[in-house]
UniProtKB/TrEMBL annotation:
Bias kind Low complexity: ranges: 327-340, 360-381
Species lineage: Bacteria, Bacillati, Actinomycetota, Actinomycetes, Streptosporangiales
GO terms, biological process: tricarboxylic acid cycle
Domain ATP-citrate synthase/succinyl-CoA ligase C-terminal: start-end pairs: 387-510
GO CC entries: cytosol; succinate-CoA ligase complex (ADP-forming)
SUPFAM superfamilies on file: NAD(P)-binding Rossmann-fold domains, Succinyl-CoA synthetase domains
UniProt protein name: FdrA protein
Alphabetical list of Pfam families matching this protein: CoA_binding (PF02629), Ligase_CoA (PF00549)
Region (Disordered) residue spans: 309-384
Domain named CoA-binding: residues: 191-280
Gene Ontology MF terms in the entry: succinate-CoA ligase (ADP-forming) activity; succinate-CoA ligase (GDP-forming) activity
Amino acid sequence: MSTDVVRIRTGVYHDSVSLMRVSQALTALPGVEVAVVAMATELNRDIATELGFDLPQTGPADLLIALRSSGPDVLESADAELERLLTGLAGRTTGATAAERPPRTVRAAARGHGATLALVSVPGPYAFAEAMDAVEAGLSVMIFSDNVPVEQEVLLKRRAGELDVLVMGPDCGTAVIGGVGLGFANVLRPGPVGVVAASGTGAQQVTCLLDLAGVGVSHVLGVGGRDLSADVGALSTLRALEALDADPATELIILISKPPAPEVADVVREAVSKLVTPVVTALLGPGQGDLTAAAETALRTLGVPIPAWPSWPSTVPSPPDATRLPGDSAASDASGTSAAFGVPDSSGPPGPPGALETFAASGSPGSPGASDASDSPGSPGRTLRGIYSGGTLCVEARLIAGTGEFTDFGDDAYTRGRPHPMIDPSLRLEALAEVPPGAVVLLDVVLGHGADPDPSVRLAPAITAAVARGVPVVVVLVGSSGDPQGLNAQAEALHAAGATVFTSNARAAGYAADVVANTL
């Protein structure tokens, strides 16, 4: 008979990634059936309750410990290991001399180290104070934290404008400053392309495609997914565009955004028209194309051949009119419209300096995290299930596929007190296990520093199980040739598990939609 124990510790905080590793280490112990060590946020409480634990009243600043073991003896050894692991976390900053201890405030760090940039990664309710401290110290700041109120974001960005510094974020997942990656960062070669992105995974998709074509970046400036909203008004986007326009190492700018407010998009277009540096703009929204098309336009602008995007396709043959696999250019009809995606053909010559090349996909998700396009055409009885870690990739895939149910597990609602799904795939694995036979799964795997060091280890068995019960799995693998996980190794492992693997999210979404429609 299993033995459960639940403990609550107040006044103890550790970051979600560290606690995830503690949970994994305890779960690996012989006789331990379940281990949940996490901050007692609403989401983590729900998970523990669903696992059958009876929880006392807690607050989100409490540490929740829930263990289930095969008996009291196992529980005793698990307790000892738990204490050892938690003591190790607490001991990171104890026992050092005053000179060795890390500074306690951002301003102290700036004074002691001559920094010009701060990275803030704390729970959302505490991010504003730390970020404002950085701005007031004259530092540009990248705010990795999510769950930050938009009113605080606006205050930060307005103050940053007054002090001539840049705020990247909140919820800024990736940035590359002078070749140094921050947050979820792919290993990118240096090159002539500067990126301004109100979209972390959108930036990763485009820059990884450029890398696969042999083109590098000067800087990638994330601005946070809400920057082009009506509330924020592109405050950081406009500053970032000016900075890259003045950068001698940047020959081409790519602007990437989740669906912007129309009036804000107009302001951005006006600003772009005044720049000297040419701009390719990939805005998801009504009317036009996708991130892959934007990357290909950038390559044409630079005079670089568009490569065959790597893919590990299904052995099932495609019909002549099916969506092409990566590497096959989508055919264009006589009007210059891509037959596969219904977007303007961009094969013509690049525009003059400052010209705006706009690519957009139709629509936006109807609710945070999850969206349903199941009223779109598809074969009776077969559905598409999108299980994503990247919000922009999720939006793009839904718009291109035009059918199915999509969930962005990187949305704020799923990350309160939990590691991002690019680090911990647990919630996505649960969702994959629940997909019924006959459905088609479309999911993303994003490589790079900060992400799961070997995602195929946990994903491959889940994919094999899904395929075995009659669920085709299509994967978009976002990564560069230099990423530590190994792009080819991950692709081969996922393909061997039964997945069809693409490096273009747009192509993956089109392919998955064709599978649903029984054209493949």
